[in-house]
């Protein structure tokens, strides 16, 4: 920055007019905590995609249009798929209609604020796409002491201070989302292991019979679901999704369980939305079938 510019603190820079492009760029880098000497290299490193990021979908909820653009740009530059909504009620609606792996949630939105939105998410027991409790990361510009504690007490999982910085948002997302070193499997091996304890040497054939029955029943459920959608039979669609969800939980297909749970809720009011996500459901079934056939071969 020029000598006439003022650096008030780590994230606040005042630029003297007339503003020049180079000085504006330097001020932005300083405000983002990137420094000047190695700013290009640091910025490039921080903006490079996180390994495994394309596997994850992030929802951003913030009522401020500028904050939305900044958050979307930062998250997108790291390789994540992301979508943006402007209110807590829209966030809940999106979470119920489509699976996400993490929610970045502004605390101070009109209507349902971040704290009330989180309480409703926990009340409805909304899950991520692995079938685990959805990670909720608070976003707030509040500098008051105890803000982090208030967020955690409200049911949020972690906290990011505004203005968002590439280094902090990168570290937060890397900490909360699995990487290729911890891949998201279609079937939970711990569940399969627990089933194996029921028939350790396979002599009874009980587990093998269970898995074969599941693999034979799945396509029938999917076909029956398709038929219920064609005849606009919401009750039947709910039943088929509920049964597929229940059976999938028995064999540890957690992501398929989470997807069925989402679609089961949707089927009560919006069969068209369910129909649009049938390819996603079928793709996850194929993953489960392939993984069960592979990892469960000692049973089958």
Description:
The protein has helices at 21-31, 39-47, 65-77, 88-97, 114-123, 147-153, 166-176, 189-196, 206-230, 234-251, 254-267, 271-276, 278-295; strands at 6-9, 12-14, 57-61, 81-85, 102-106, 136-140, 158-161. It is α/β, with parallel strands linked by helices and 300 residues long. A 5-stranded parallel beta sheet has the order 4-3-5-6-7, sandwiched between helices. The chain has a two-stranded antiparallel sheet with strand order 1-2. Helix 4 packs parallel to helix 5. 29% of the residues are buried.
Largest sheet: 5 strands, parallel
Low-confidence stretches: 1-5, 35-46
On the 0 to 100 scale, the average pLDDT is: 82
The CA-CA distance between the termini, in Å, is 68 Å
Number of strands: 7
Helix content: 40-55%
Order of helices and strands: EEHHEHEHEHEHEHHHHHHH
Q: From the helix content, strand content and strand pairing, which structural class follows?
A: alpha/beta
Order of strands across the main sheet? 4-3-5-6-7
Query: In one word, what is the shape?
Result: elongated
- Beta-strand content: 5-15%
Number of helices: 13
Rg, Cα atoms, Å? 23 Å
